[in-house]
Design goal:
2 domains; seven-stranded parallel sheet; alpha/beta; Alpha/beta knot; 5 helices
């Protein structure tokens, strides 16, 4: 199925559905890609599909049976200036859920989350996964249960290197300015799992990508 266009059409897709195409998607399939067939996906499933004769609807065919390569990692992250890059990379890496967290040093309060959702959809279509990660509404750092979470511990770059010792599926990364002293104290007090990203200081979006790989099974 290489080179066949992949289109996300919702989490509840089933064989036999006839789904109206947006003008943009219809143009992409029939004029840009010049194809009437496609792969549609959502909710972890993937289906063969075809555009109808009118070019306005897509008809969902049989389930391909291909397993979703996405993982089960939840990424808690502080919104950053390059949140779009972070969302793109996290989606390509198979993250299941993205939770924006407002930390003391967060300095990107005006994120267009609808645009972030579109970026996640595009990244899912391109990366051959069968699902789009959920992006929740932003929450405060104080509202996160830190007892069952790993966190990117940039203190490692200053000589305090500690490694992940247990398997865990949730990890938090901080903003450009890093976590505050009080936030580090909260992690330590809650028994959160520190994860070293190495001895150099990384850009926040790269730190997120590496942190994801640290907790993936």
């Amino acid at each position: 199925m290489k080179n066949i266009p992949r289109i996300f059409i919702g989490d509840n897709v089933q064989s036999g559905m006839i789904i109206p195409l947006s003008r943009e998607t219809a143009h992409y399939l029939t004029h840009v890609m010049r194809r009437r067939d496609a792969i549609v996906f959502g909710g972890g499933n993937e289906f063969c599909a075809a555009v109808d004769d009118a070019g306005k609807n897509i008809i969902v065919g049989e389930n391909t049976g291909r397993a979703d390569p996405s993982g089960d990692v939840t990424l808690y992250f502080a919104p950053i200036k390059r949140t779009d890059d972070l969302i793109n990379m996290a989606t390509q890496l198979g993250v299941k859920k993205l939770v924006p967290v407002i930390t003391e040093h967060t300095n990107a309060p005006h994120i267009n989350w609808e645009r972030m959702r579109k970026i996640a959809i595009e990244a899912a279509e391109q990366s051959n996964r069968n699902s789009v990660p959920e992006i929740t509404s932003p929450i405060k750092f104080a509202d996160v249960d830190l007892s069952h979470i790993a966190f990117a511990d940039e203190r490692a770059a200053y000589g305090n290197v500690r490694a992940k010792t247990t398997k865990i599926n949730s990890i938090m990364v901080g903003p450009e300015g890093g976590f505050s002293t009080a936030e580090f104290a909260a992690f330590d007090s809650a028994g959160a799992t520190p994860v070293s990203l190495g001895a150099t200081i990384l850009r926040a979006e790269l730190a997120a990508a590496i942190a994801i790989t640290r907790v993936q099974k």
